[in-house]
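Can you give me the bound-state structure? Components:
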Amino acid sequence: MTKRKLVIALAGNANVGKSVIFNYLTGLHQHIGNWPGKTVERAEGTLHFKGYTIDIVDLPGIYSLSTYSLEELISRKYIAVERPDVVINVVDASVLERNLFFTLQLLELETPMLLALNQMDMAKRKGTEIDTKKLEKLLGIPVIPTVAIKGIGIFQLLEKAIEIIEKGPKAKHAELKYGEEVKERIAKLTKMIERLQFWYPARYVAIKLLEGDEEIEREVSRIDPQIVSTAKKLDDEIENLHGHSCSTVITSERYEAAGCIAREAQKLVSPIKPTIEEGLDIITTHKIMGYPIMAFSLLLMFYSIFTFGHIASELLSNFFYGLKPLFASLLGTGIVGKLVWGGVIEGVIAGVTIALPYIVPFYIILYFLEDLGYLSRVAFLMDSAMHKIGLHGKAFIPIMLGYGCNVPACLGCRIMETERERLLAAFVTTLVPCAARTVIILGLVGQFMGIQWALMLYVFDLLIIFILGRLAFRTLPEEPIALIMEMPDYRLPHLKTVLKQTWFRLVEFIKIAFPLIVAGSLALKLAEVLGLLEPIATLLSPVTVVWLGLPAITGITLMFGVLRKELTLIMLATLLGTTNFAQVLTPIQMVVFTLVAMFYIPCVATIAALVREFGWKKALFITLFEIVFAISLGGVALRLLALTA
Amino acid sequence: MEKRSAERLEVPLTALRDGETGIVTSIKAGYGRGLGRGWGFEKRLMDLGLTPGTRVTVVRSAPFHGPLEILVRGSRLALGRGMAERIFVEIEK
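Here's the bound-state model for the whole set.
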């Protein structure tokens, strides 16, 4: 058998188990990147099967193939232009009607495809059995029942996909029957389009033109504007006939067809009451109880992560610093030795002692909660609070992530729908005190002034987030968009998928953060070796000493804090020669120092994440704004606190 | 597709109490309190199954003027209140 390369695309709604199937198919051979020039993720993997090398492309989870979102546009262009050998449409059997609505649109793209009817077990528990043979006949494509989390049906899926590729699609797909008025007009328009060379099928273009699809209108009018104006005319005719816009009529009829197919293929059986899941659903979204449950779960999550992280971080850094003598004997204690150890290796240690102990457990818990279905409930409960700063409920998730580390939080802002929401959410996120800043708050103010002062700083931080978030929301053009989100049923997470997602995020974090942390430490170490630190501290003293009322050496520590915020505290101890900060700093100085450290700049890794997501200009703007803001805030706080003292 | 009789009441989805069901009559863009007017939102709602003539049940609503959870075509969705205010339904008696 000759070796051949094949491409299979996975398409379907969100929350249907697409990523579980993807993981089963590709195992460890995965690669997650972005679609060229877009902030939409593209997951790809390879597998070998029956002598073929197969590329699996996991398309984003979407509900339609219109131009509502970038994800939808990317998906349909991919299918039409890059033409995968076969598309596997993953469908949630327990929400068949809505899933088939998407299937019917895929069929209109006239691509070779088959259906993975997933979560058959769930559907049965909810009270429906599906006749796959009947469904096959109604849709005109092969249907394979699967239970992805148990690995059932995956092999058959792959076999069937290969069979389709080898033998070619069986026959023409079933064509969706629109109402007479619409059908006539589609046919008329299709005829006009057929003579054009276009990457979408002619009938698809006709339908989309009638639906008023902007991308296709633009493309077609470049070739033949006559067609677009004809489509507009036909549009008006249908609107006059039905009393609804043509796009509404077509969507309704498509749903009507999906509903018909679903009803015909389904058989109602008595549902098994999933009492635990239902109970959990009721209490976790309860008007009153929902909030304390959420607060408790989140506190528990942070508490366990910080406890674990603290211990693990200490163990790791003890281990690494234990290697120092070894390095000293290898590299000597000259300038090169100092640079390699203090610059490169300490930079790597810094990254590792944050990434492994804090970020890994954070991601595991986060993906666990997401897979479980709890994050959607949290977004539901927090929606009205987030509206105060012009965002909707989903933005609460990256903000929460920010308490662990701002880097994944900034990347997590991708779940927001528009560029505007993404930027606003990321800006707010950089104001959230991450694990490293928590070390400063607790280690300085908490330790030497009492925990109540530390808590007050957290509350103050929330207030600042609220005020700045609101200001940014008022300043940014365009209107905020409201929450539209699916509420998935509670279900047991698939552990392997959770771990794999964590792994890919970790790799992403390392790629973004490590180079800059290492480069930054090297630069600072070089400054130290060259004896530039003292002059720099003196240079900064108008700000640190005069305006903020802090010792001059804090200028140096704040510079190191750009690499990792908790370094500000560690450096302070080294430079002051004591860990008993009460001897060297007054309580007011502690508060001012902590405030500045909290806000003054996102750390270098966060800046890198901002650059990657929003470009240099916006990242620089946020960075400069926060420096000015933190310094102003510190000075004002100093003067106000001095009044009360 | 659309039947309108005198005794039938057309109200925004937000007027339904938890557990009540209505039939979608129309989605009015540009109506309501500003939130949710983002681009193409009408299209998105329809893509999720809220086409005229569809039955919608309000499962629950979040407090503090929060979103609604609705059941439509067997799937459950959370909708921001500003958006739900623009979905008009007839109450089923």
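A couple of observations. Confidence is low (pLDDT under 50) at residues 1-6, 31-39 of chain B. The domain at 10-91 of chain B is CATH 2.30.30.90 (SH3 type barrels.).
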